[in-house]
Amino acid sequence: MQINTTIANLKNYKTYLKVEEAVHEFMRKKEYLKVDLPVLSPALIPESYLEVFQTDFTYLEKREKLFLTPSPELFLKRLLVHGVGNCYFLGKAFRNSEPNSERHTPEFKMLEYYKTKSDYMDIADELLELLRFIYIRVNGLSEMERRKKQEIKFQNKKISLSKWEKLTLAQAFQKYAGIKDIELFNDEKFIEKAKVKGYKVDGFTFEDVWSQMYTQEIECHLGMNGYPTMLYDYPKEFAALAKLNKDGKTAQRFEFYIGGVELGDCYTELTDWKEQEDRFNEEYRKRKTSRKIDHPIDKGFIEALQYGLTDCAGIAIGFDRLAMIYANATSLDDLKLINIR
Amino acid sequence: MYVNAGNLKKGDFIRYQNEIWQVQKADFYSPGKGSALMKSKIKNLMSGKNIDYTFKSQENVETLDVESIEMQYLYKDNENLYFMNERTYNQYQVRLSIVGDIASFMKEGTKHFVYLYDDKPLNVRPPLSVKLKVVETEAGIKGDTVTGAKKPATLETGVVVQVPLFVKVGDVISVNPETAQYTGREQ
């Protein structure tokens, strides 16, 4: 990697700053507590699909391992248990083993917030309000102008922030990949169908093939039809920390997209700590078998949850990508003044 | 040879669904569930058509052992570009639709690398830069040279590129044929 200085990005960077200020302003207005959090932690929540950065704290002969946090979730949920109420973090997160691309950098800024006594649909409504608020601040519009115009231009597409295009995951698979409900919720039938479509399935898990088909056939259509797309109700296998829906097959999770760019992931939080602990152990085991960095599990987090996580919903948003949309930039490379690539 | 799709990079030749493709772009992508993916853009070297395809990063993909041989570019017609291997005097033709916009930066008589697989030509390797003479551009446009104002210039192959205001007719300039960007002027 090398350090790149790109003064030509100044205009986009100023948009980035406006988006950041707008988020803080909106959150203050909605009475979310802004929380400053560490990014170096001695323990983490085990997550099998992502790799972390590890470093050492040294003092005389002593050494202690510390890890850069891949998300602020472990800290924010502790605070929720302690009754802090609605809160948010806008700061750095780190993910290892995922190389730089137009849409991803190993170090990135994340906006994560939790709303108590709410579910994922409440978050979705408020999120649309946030997107419109950012638009107003970025473009310096008055209240009058705002009513007339709320349209982002991104990569020659106009995207109106007046409403969501709402699609359940099952509807999206039916519409764009011709996968029926019954095939989506049955591993064997799904794999069979994927094979017919020409995907390589031997030696791969259901999740592997599912992610591939999703990326290849679904994702490119999302947020492309004039509105941001909210894709919701994931099969429960794809939303381990989300509350189940009444159908027993899907969980209360949504992701949202603008112009084919995935921007955020929301859950109605699972509040059952036993279920959480089981899931932790499972993820920890998977990390071991896939020879990922062996970090301590944050046991204090589980203890905190035993006191009871209040009913809430939370969302994590890739802040740099969001700013990229408002700046109408094609790549994260075009957003900041100093980039490590 | 088979490789993991996670190792694919721009320029690689692969066999996919029994046809030969060249990788135009390959981005690693971690979807958060299941193994990582390789989002790629690949070009079919028969039809010239580009498609987006997402491989699983652990998926085996057959890469082809392709040679690149320096040849003289002779001429083109509406369909093909014609090359000659100066050692063997064998002639090869590559479809214009495969080479794409780069063809408009190629001057007859210059040397280029042609990719061969089983002695069949697949594509032209784009040079990092080409040197071409300016045959037409407006003289003496006044402008702010500090902020890098540009004007159009027609080069000897007929292609038009944006150049800095100080460039004049008769200058030889270097251009990156893949991006059509001016990179410098010969002294």
TrEMBL record, chain A:
InterPro entries: Aa-tRNA-synt_II (IPR004364), aa-tRNA-synth_II (IPR006195), aa-tRNA-synth_II/BPL/LPL (IPR045864)
GO molecular function: ATP binding; lysine-tRNA ligase activity; tRNA binding
Cellular component aspect of the GO annotation: cytosol
SUPFAM superfamilies assigned: Class II aaRS and biotin synthetases
Ranges of residues in domain Aminoacyl-transfer RNA synthetases class-II family profile: 18-341
Highest taxon listed in the record's lineage: Bacteria
Annotated keywords: ATP-binding, Ligase, Nucleotide-binding
GO biological process: lysyl-tRNA aminoacylation
Keyword Flavoprotein: no
Keyword Plastid: no
PANTHER family given in the database record: ELONGATION FACTOR P--(R)-BETA-LYSINE LIGASE, LYSYL-TRNA SYNTHETASE
Protein name, per record: Aminoacyl-transfer RNA synthetases class-II family profile domain-containing protein
Automatic annotation (TrEMBL), chain B:
Organism: Candidatus Roizmanbacteria bacterium RIFCSPHIGHO2_02_FULL_39_9
Pathway(s) of this molecule: Protein biosynthesis; polypeptide chain elongation
InterPro entries: Elong-fact-P_C, NA-bd_OB-fold, Rib_uL2_dom2, Transl_elong_fac_P/YeiP, Transl_elong_KOW-like, Transl_elong_P/YeiP_cen, Transl_elong_P/YeiP_CS, Transl_elongation_fac_P
SMART domains in the record: EFP, Elong-fact-P_C
Protein name: Elongation factor P
Domain Translation elongation factor P/YeiP central span(s) in chain numbering: 68-122
Annotated localization: Cytoplasm
MF term (GO), any: translation elongation factor activity
GO terms under cellular component: cytosol
Domain Elongation factor P C-terminal: residue ranges: 130-185
Alphabetical list of Pfam families matching this protein: EFP, EFP_N, Elong-fact-P_C
Homology family: Belongs to the elongation factor P family.
This protein's UniProt keywords: Cytoplasm, Elongation factor, Protein biosynthesis
KW Cytoplasm (keyword) present: yes
UniProt cross-references to PROSITE patterns, sorted A to Z: EFP
GO biological process entries: peptide biosynthetic process
Gene: efp
Its biological purpose: Involved in peptide bond synthesis. Stimulates efficient translation and peptide-bond synthesis on native or reconstituted 70S ribosomes in vitro. Probably functions indirectly by altering the affinity of the ribosome for aminoacyl-tRNA, thus increasing their reactivity as acceptors for peptidyl transferase.
